[in-house]
What does this fold into?
Amino acid sequence: MSDAAMFRSAANDIMIAERNSAAGQREKYRGILFEASIAVILIFGFGIFIVMRLVASLRSVALAENTLRRDRDFSRLLLESSGDGVAAFDREFRCTHWNSAMSAMFPVPDGKDIVGHLIQKAYSFPDDHMIMDLMRQTLAGESLHMPAHAIPDSTRYIEKFTYPIKSGDTIIGGILFFRDVTDAHSAQLELVKHRDQLETIVAERTRDLEESLARETGLRELYKGFVSMVSHQFRTPLSIIDASAQRIIRRGRQMTEEEIHERAGKIRAAVLRLTRLVSSTLNAAKMDAGQIDVDIRRCDLAKLIVEACERQKETSPNRIFHIELEHLPAWTSCDPLLIDQVVANLLSNAVKYSSPPHSIDVSAEVDHQQVRIRVSDRGVGIPEEERHKLFERFFRARTAVGVEGTGIGLHVARTIARMHGGDVDAFAREGGGSIFVLTIPREEALAA
It folds into this structure.
């Protein structure tokens, strides 16, 4: 074979080989391109997926942030609208929340913003201050309540609550609630005041009722005793009158003039005794009914007293009366009928509770305000421990046993004297006996 043919054959083989190689390369590139296209498509798909997930996540985050913001705003609105002072703090006692009510209750010195600052430093609290103790106990896990108490240098009252703030089982801070209870405290104080007043009123009414019941019971017993005593007092003079009358009837003309005079004197004395008894009883009843009127007019008090002594002498002819009335004024303003009854009662008592030969001493003292009439005797006297009861109705001292009387006279006498603006009092007389003093205002004192 010629060299040309051989070269030609070699060239053809080389060309075929190159063509086959190029075809193989093209197939290989085509496969790589296909794989690359598939990879790009997959990467693009995954990119779209990731972008979609990212968008969804961003949307969820935005929604969560909106929800969180809405919840935070609502919580802040609740805290601001509650009216209570609310403050939150972390473990370093740094304020994390401080609402407007808190600022109104406890303005921060110099108007600084307290959020983010140490509460102790903002208010210059000492380390042992009550608020610091509350925060320490709260961070220790205690929920505390401090009852209503006054704010220093203020008229307001507050109530405190504290609660720990936890994240899981870990305490990360605390929250303080300060409630203004001034109105409630004032209402409570007012309620307590009204309750105390009501209790006092009820106690007073109960005491008044008990005292009224006791007085009623005592008065009923006194009236029983009075009825019994009056019955006895009436029977004695009536028996004297009856016995004297029967004596006169039986003896008739056989009686001497002296005996008739004696019997008539006994009848008259008994009648006078009955008259005084009836008069005292009626006067007491009239006073109870408010039916006694005082007719104040000018009268000669010395003459009134002398006449009362003369009447007393008629029934007690064996008694001596020493009368010293030269100091009395010419005229005295009083009700002569009622004052005559007082004087007659004092004279009658002096005669009953003393015996001859001792005299009854009647004297007068006068100053620029009062007229004092003194009736003194040397009788049985008045026990000192019973003197404060002497003018009570129906009361009779133990020294009055066996002496006629109802226990009304002195009560009526003092009542009449007090109706005149005066009084009647009793004293022990030195050397034995009693002194009764009637006091009435002078006319000049009444005019003043």
In short: Residues 194 and 200 are 10 Å apart (CA to CA).
